[in-house]
Design brief:
Blueprint lengths: L1 H8 L3 E6 L6 E8 L4 E7 L7 H13 L7 E5 L2 E5 L9 H11 L3 E2 L8 E3 L2 E3 L13 H20 L5 H11 L12 E4 L8 E4 L2 E5 L5 E3 L2 H9 L5 H10 L6 H21 L3 H11 L3
Antiparallel strand pairs: 1-2, 2-3, 3-5, 4-5, 6-9, 7-8, 9-12, 10-11
Keywords: Kinase, Transferase
Organism: Rhodothalassium salexigens DSM 2132
Family: Belongs to the fructosamine kinase family.
Length: 285
């Protein structure tokens, strides 16, 4: 790797240290002889190569004004990004400011111009068209491009039984009962849990490991609560900038969190299948 890094960055590597958080790929902090410190991300042996996709996502977010690590260089199988200060969680108000600003970036339709990745899994971002697209395009997109594909991946991995897969399919066909038909299509980080938020002296230094597309902003808000990441202070500050519609906490949060929970079933199994089952029970699937 040292030779590849030197060729890409134009500087020799003086130190190379592994970083935590490499469940999907391998991550190293790299010191270069020109004084720079960067982060190198590579795929694990046999894993999906997401380097160029992640670079494209980071560049799109940066162009939209979202704080993300700068892309230093990329080639197949190797992404080099700027090292960013990470001194703990930022203040809730500053995270709310950053997320609300990101959700202020809109476009006309849901999805993205290319496939992206969620925790290493391919995300199909094509619009839902033809017979499959009802009068409610957002519930159709979330069903056909998120819930159903991830449920099938979990089933194919042997960690979601056929009966639960059928229940997810049934719920996906009824999402228009609970999700808004045409919410604004805003820029989503897509994998916005606390571990992907870096802070420095109370400020957000960067959002990392994106899974971007354009969709309902509540997708990000839901995931921020999934592992206990944010609380009342965040939502008060976010709501002052972008008021929440009624029903998010009571209804839609659980529906949106089915997607990351299904990924966790696929990747880890265990108790995550029980969480999926509890949500399906709640919505009568």
């Amino acid at each position: 790797m040292r030779e590849r890094l030197a060729a890409l960055t134009g500087a020799a590597v003086t130190a190379l240290a592994p970083l935590s958080g490499g469940d999907i790929g391998l991550v190293h902090r790299v010191r270069l002889d020109d004084g720079r410190t960067v982060v190198a991300k590579t795929a694990k042996p046999g894993g999906r190569d997401t380097a160029e996709v992640e670079a494209a996502m980071l560049r799109h977010m940066a162009a939209a004004g979202v704080p993300v690590p700068g892309v230093v260089a990329v080639e197949p199988g190797l992404l080099v990004i700027d090292a960013v200060a990470d001194q703990g969680a930022p203040d809730a108000a500053d995270l709310a400011r950053v997320v609300a600003a990101m959700h202020g970036v809109e476009r006309a339709d849901y999805g993205f111009d290319a496939a992206t990745v969620f925790a290493g899994e391919r995300q199909d971002n094509r619009p839902v068209t033809g017979v499959a697209a009802p009068a409610a395009p957002w519930p159709a997109f979330f069903a056909e491009r998120r819930l159903r594909p991830m449920a099938h991946l979990a089933h194919d991995a042997g960690r979601l039984d056929r009966a639960t897969l059928a229940r997810v399919e049934a719920l996906a066909g009824r999402l228009d009962r609970w999700l808004p038909a045409r919410p604004p299509a805003v820029l989503l980080h897509g994998d916005l849990w606390a571990g992907n938020v870096l802070g420095d002296r109370g400020r957000v230094s960067a959002l990392v490991d994106p899974a971007i597309y354009y969709g309902h902003g509540e997708v990000d808000l839901a995931m921020l609560t999934l592992f206990g990441g944010v609380g009342r202070d965040f939502f008060a500050a976010y709501g002052a900038r972008r008021p929440l519609d009624p029903g998010f906490f009571e209804v839609r949060r659980d529906l949106y969190n089915l997607y990351p929970l299904l990924f966790h079933v696929k990747a880890f199994g265990g108790g995550y299948a029980g969480q999926v089952g509890a949500i399906l029970d709640r919505f009568g699937a």
